[in-house]
């Protein structure tokens, strides 16, 4: 078992590369199984546990994978198993994309219900509503989604809630449906556009991704292609916040500044300096920033996945900050951990009220989920003295080489193996 040991209080200086986007990669890998001809070569894949998990799942379906550090070649012409029922399927969220992908290509599948971070109730009713509208029969049996269709026929679907997962999943299935499918009230996150671009490179016909309405004209088959995943908006946002919190000057490379606008705007409001230059962004901060109010929202609003890292910064920002978490009902599990370090936070339902303190003090804390883990690392980097972050398997699910990247910026952080 590993933990991160951090001696806080160092300013951050230097330059690091941001990896490919986790939430795009974990949808693009399942989408690749829709190719009935040729192989998919996918580049800029982040080296994280969620990706490794999906690579094992794809292999269990019969795909042949050639895996390199940041790329993978997938031959899905030889799939011979439509029953995704391994431990890996159960433990991650994005395994639900296998439902849309297998349904689209084979018109049937059995996929165990997904796991993922414990951040609130995570229903998939909108995914199911979309599949049924396309003509599929869906049953939940013994913990699995059992789905089949004689034919998938394009139709109009208006989602009741804006959902990243449902938008992508139904887009996958509709790509191989007969006729035109119109999806309304869809999510607009950068990874929605990336998955649509990937499917179009495979021969799909998808228009409007990134707006409220997506129009998909079904095609008969999809084939392999070469593709590079977009940079990770959330990883970049996390490092921006760390730089703002610790003070110093940090350059992030391989990013798309437009995807970071809501985060940049908040950091500027707090007193940090941000400079965009092509595919890099520089964050300069004195480390003494002022508190702000935040409401998490679907893109282009402030991302829920950056709320937890941001709250670590707000614990030492002057005055009162109020966070309203509008996407997930239990995304404040990191608050009790931050309190162990001296933070002054009160949670009332979906609202956290943070009164800035002078500094945090190092403590033994745990990563209760992926982004909570990032928040605890940032808290440890700010704090006076030593912090140990436990349960870092959550962090490894989404942040490649987190300790190496912070070390390259001058932080005193190391990974230590220990037994319970
Ligand atoms: N929702 C429904 N019914 C559905 C689907 C969603 O009511 O059928 C609700 C959810 O309960 C939630 C809201 O809609 O309140 C948004 O959920 P969404 O479906 O957008 O979330 P998701 O697809 O399960 C993805 C990311 C999350 C990220 C959210 C929101 C992946 C694998 N996960 O989850 O990322 O928080 O979108 O942007 O893409 C993370 O990376 O740490 C993470 C949790």
From TrEMBL:
Phosphoenolpyruvate binds at residues 22-23. The keyword Cytoplasm applies. Keywords: Cell cycle, Cell division, Cell shape, Cell wall biogenesis/degradation, Cytoplasm, Peptidoglycan synthesis, Pyruvate, Transferase. It is an enzyme of class 2 (transferase). The active site is at 117 (proton donor). It is found in: Cytoplasm. The modification 2-(S-cysteinyl)pyruvic acid O-phosphothioketal is found at residue 117. UDP-N-acetyl-alpha-D-glucosamine binds at residues 93, 122-126, 305, 327. It catalyses: phosphoenolpyruvate + UDP-N-acetyl-alpha-D-glucosamine = UDP-N-acetyl-3-O-(1-carboxyvinyl)-alpha-D-glucosamine + phosphate. Its EC number is 2.5.1.7. It holds the Pfam family EPSP_synthase. The keyword Transferase applies. Cell wall formation. Adds enolpyruvyl to UDP-N-acetylglucosamine. This is UDP-N-acetylglucosamine 1-carboxyvinyltransferase.
